[in-house]
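Forwarding these from the shared drive since the link keeps breaking.
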Amino acid sequence: MKQVLLLLLLGSASTAQAQLINLISTGVRVGTSAAMASRSSAGARNYVETADPRANTTDVNVTPATYRGQAYPLKRTAPGKLKTPGGEQIALQEAELQKCQEAMLADSSAAIGTPDTWARLRTSQATIARERPTWNVQPYRDEAAFYEAEAARRQHRTTPTAPATAPTAAPAVPAALPAIPPAAGH
């Protein structure tokens, strides 16, 4: 009887021990996978922040904006972050885009910019890309393109279309034609 009781006690002890080991190993596995997931997502965030900023990646200075149901990016940088090289050009670019946005929001029919404005913005974007190759100018391009498209839409809306020409009626024919005097000498 003592042997059976001892076997049962040892058997239940090994079962409890096995469950305890299983519980500990499961906890270790869950903890390890959570740590790995946290590390890999942090690594992905670091990769995005150090990746080529000219690519379409997340930029902390870009916020989405909408106008008439269409989304466009707004990239505005704190003045303290605008260091040389290219800092002055970036500030000018953002100021010009800000003027365009204010003009667009102020009046739904007012002009936003001129062809000269769009040319200045493109030149400025090229200068920024040349002077500061790691600076992401794509949001500036997208925002400027949005304003230019909105300006074209407004221009198209305000340009009067040529009136449709109604079919012209044939000239009225007099009821009686005037008599032609006979030529002399005939």
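-- next protein --
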Amino acid sequence: MDDMKRATIKQWIESILHPAIGAKPRRRIDQNENAFPTSQQKRKRDSTEESLTMPDFEPPKRLRPPDNDDASTPPLRNDVSIPPSTATASSRQRQRSSSPKRIKAGLKQASPAIKYLPSVMDPENDAAKELFSYLAHDDEPNPWQPGILEVAKLSEASSKCKVELRSEGSWVIQVAWPLLQLAVGELPLDCWSVQTETVDVRYQPKYTARDTFNRKLDLVVGLPIEKWARQYEAIAAVGIDGSAPSINQSMSHIDHPHTGDRLLGIGFEVKASDGNLDEAEVQLGVWMAGLVSWMWERRCGTPTPPPVIGCISIGDQLDFYIVYGVEGANGELDRVCVWGPLSDLSGRLGSHKSTCALIKTMRRVMQYTSGRYVDLLVHCIAGHTYGSM
């Protein structure tokens, strides 16, 4: 080896043993040191490299919800369950149909259908027209007149409930109930509260939204058994379609031990002054449709059940409706028509004159119920059995 090569090797060895000033020595790994850097060392190295390579502009970071252990954030509840989103077109349609007006329109698709007819329309039913003519014309030689004191009390109670913005319960107790009692008078009828009694499922109109509304009324006028024993015996002796009587057959469409065993007539729905007419008409229509369905189920032969009267009072305004069934092609009940409100019969509780006129109209309703209505109903169900008793 010549002197030049020897000098080059010596210079290389010197550079390793004594590095130049400013040169960064190569780091050796001690035998006792872990070959993998610790997390603290790694974070320190990453921060150093980031400071050398990070550009001046930093893009926005995605926001992250705070940790659960943050003192300013309340703990998450585990008692709330959120159902999965399974809304379909049909379920959304049912949700939109929750308003009384939509439900009322949808009853046309029920079975039997419930059809609402305004007073200006022809009901195309002779019995309904005849009943309307009877209620609208008081041509008796000695017409019934309510007492002056009773009229004054009823007018005062109505005005008080209106001024004090009383609830529906007050209108029922202080106005509607005394009105019915005054109109009944000595007639063989009774008034019953049915606020907690619902229509039997057998006689409810069948349609998809039937559980989205109230199917109850406030008051009903019916026939007490002790005053109509002969009529009750005639109906009890005949089963459905003229068959043998059944122990489970009822005297009305109501699922209740008392009212279900009574013959019923007028249905009365009461609302406060801010009540919704569409909601009241839905309740009245469904309730009366159940009564008509019961009549048609119990009828024997071809006679058509008689029309029945329904009433709605919203505050001091009272409206009357005539409800009747229409036969289908197969001889069964096809639809129930609710004709009204009948403007010629409607009235308002207020002055002595208007209150007296309204009471007299209600009196004719009671006279029809205890007269022609009962006769037609019993003949329709019992037929020749009733005539021979």
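Residues 197 and 256 are 6 Å apart (CA to CA). The chain is about 40% helix and 15% strand.

- D.
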